[in-house]
Write a structure and sequence with these properties.
alpha/beta; Aldehyde Dehydrogenase, Chain A, domain 1; Aldehyde Dehydrogenase, Chain A, domain 2; six-stranded mixed β-sheet; 15 helices; globular; binds NADP nicotinamide-adenine-dinucleotide phosphate; binds magnesium ion
């Protein structure tokens, strides 16, 4: 065991940020720690009136151009400063993230916080590289196309990568000149609030980034139905994504972008060039962040000739992944985000057993004496491709192995869910790799690697994994409208 991350003297943020200031809450809710089930503190429970104020301040900031009209050099400086501040506050933010949602502090330090800073850096640098277009030559007209910010963006984010999911949306939305109202998940509001504070410190004008913690049905729904929000950028479940489309349809037809769940396949062919790398990817592709990852490789499709040996390798790796205190730097696997999430995962494990899948490893709650919400890495074999375990997202550390005999069967199984977020393919055959990349219907395909991309590449899903992309220049365009302008030339004088 390493030295636990220090929490003494740590301020636990809990207030909404509206129009550049922390707001005295009208009501609060308990922020529960998944690490020990204790109450960390009280967090503002924003309602429709708070959301109204936040949207009004975002609108006023947008209309008077205090951010939108700043020269791109000035915007760039502010976003870089924010990235600097995220980096200088790395330890504080990592500790808040780990306390709030149960992820290993080592991951928060090495991944979540640096990646969030990097999003702001990337979009700081991207904002002056988005060019418009000039239309084709016409003898009597000149036409051009410009990108314009949309206005007020409502960002609604989940709890699995609280700061990073917020950064994926807030950074490009701000870089494009929009104002933002950010609604963090009720389970993990602290780093989002801190982001709002640090943005002000970086010089972002008041009202440009507002943060309204609270419940989805209250603060989230109020944003969704608001008549003065121009777009909702959402990451979360398909059911809430569907609600947001309804809210948009019943209010002002605001745009909606949805990053939803997945049931991503990891497909291992017998000619896999590096079995150890594939086995590590198969294990960490599902057990990273306790399986609470939208791209989690929850279905392991393995060619039958190597299946027994390969699955045994994955189980051996998984056995060594032991749930531990999230604040311990040696912990690689932490707590489930909430008691509700833990109970749901255990229920799905029981259902898989009842459906006839063979439990090879795990399946239990552990560390119960801590009061925290810990579930062991779990591996099933002989999973029926039509069963609930193979079809429905668990959003927890549960892997299901399925065998196949032919390439066609592998591709068919890969596509046999309603989702299409990510897929891994392990093969030495270049033709099969290319065929797989074409055949698999998902927004991300990784060949002979897992999660092998970064902020430079678009992220998002096909089919019920959603639409719209985070990351890359495409995300910048998502927060913009196109305006076509034409000037008609009079006769030469
Ligand atoms: P969720 O229940 O859909 O919540 C996501 C966000 O929506 C939270 O901020 C939530 O607030 C809010 N919300 C809930 N009900 C709402 C409503 N009626 N109106 C407006 N907002 C509402 O999802 P989750 O359980 O937190 O997160 C897990 C899901 O996210 C999984 O399905 C996972 O696959 C998906 N996910 C997808 C990606 C991706 O990029 N594709 C990334 C990460 C996670 P409350 O917290 O207060 O309920
Ligand atoms: Mg939720």
């Amino acid at each position: 065991m390493g030295e636990l991350a220090r929490t003494d003297g740590l301020r636990l943020p809990g207030r909404a940020i509206v129009d550049g200031a922390a707001v005295e809450p009208r009501a609060t809710f308990d922020n529960v720690s998944p690490r020990d089930g204790g109450i960390l503190g009280q967090v503002a429970r924003c309602g429709a009136a708070d959301v109204d104020r936040a949207v009004a301040s975002a609108r006023a900031a947008f209309e008077d151009g205090r951010w939108r009209e700043q020269p791109y050099r000035a915007k760039k400086q502010v976003l870089h400063k924010l990235a600097d501040l995220i980096e200088t506050h790395l330890e504080e933010l990592a500790t808040l993230e780990s306390l709030d949602m149960g992820k290993p502090i080592a991951d928060a330090r090495a991944f979540d916080i640096p990646a969030s800073a990097n999003s702001f850096r990337y979009y700081a640098e991207a904002l002056d590289k988005l060019y418009g277009e000039v239309g084709p030559h016409h003898p009597d007209r000149i036409s051009w196309v410009v990108h314009e910010p949309l206005g007020v963006i409502g960002c609604i984010v989940p709890w699995n990568f609280p700061l990073n999911m917020a950064a994926w949306k807030v950074a490009p939305a701000l870089a494009m000149g929009n104002s933002v109202v950010l609604k963090p998940a009720e389970q993990s509001p602290m780093t989002a609030i801190r982001l709002g504070e640090l943005a002000l410190e970086a010089g972002l004008p008041p009202g440009v980034l507002n943060v309204v913690p609270g419940y989805g049905e209250e603060a989230g729904q109020a944003l969704g139905r608001h008549m003065d929000v121009d777009m909702l950028a959402f990451t979360g479940s398909g059911s809430v994504g569907g609600l947001l489309m309804r809210y948009a349809g019943k209010s002002n037809l605001k745009r909606v972008s949805l990053e939803l769940g997945g049931k991503s396949p990891q497909i291992v062919f017998a000619d896999c060039p590096d079995m150890e790398a594939a086995a590590q990817a198969a294990a960490w592709g599902i057990f990273f962040n306790q399986g609470e990852v939208c791209t989690a490789a929850s279905r392991l499709l393995v060619e039958n000739g190597i299946k027994a040996e390969f699955v045994a390798r994955v189980v051996a790796i998984a056995k060594a992944i032991v749930p531990g205190d999230p604040l311990d730097p040696d912990t690689r696997f932490g707590a489930m985000v909430s008691e509700e999430q833990m109970t749901g995962v255990l229920r799905r494990i029981q259902r898989a057993e009842a459906d006839g899948a063979k439990l090879l490893l795990g399946g239990q709650r552990v560390r119960e004496e801590s009061g925290g919400f810990f579930v062991t890495p779990t591996v099933f074999d002989d999973v029926d491709p039509a069963s609930a375990l193979a079809q429905q997202e668990v959003f927890g550390p549960v892997l299901g192995a399925i065998g196949f005999d032919t390439t066609e069967e592998a591709f068919r199984l890969a596509n046999q869910t309603v989702y299409g977020l990510a897929a891994g393919v392990w093969t030495a055959d270049v033709t099969r790799a290319h065929r797989a990349a074409r055949a698999i219907r998902s927004g991300l395909v990784w060949i002979n690697g897992w999660d092998a991309c970064d902020i430079t590449m678009p992220f998002g899903g096909f089919r019920q994994s959603g639409f719209g992309r985070d990351r890359s220049m495409h995300a910048l365009e998502k927060y913009a409208d196109l305006k076509a302008i034409t000037i008609t030339l009079g006769p030469q004088k």
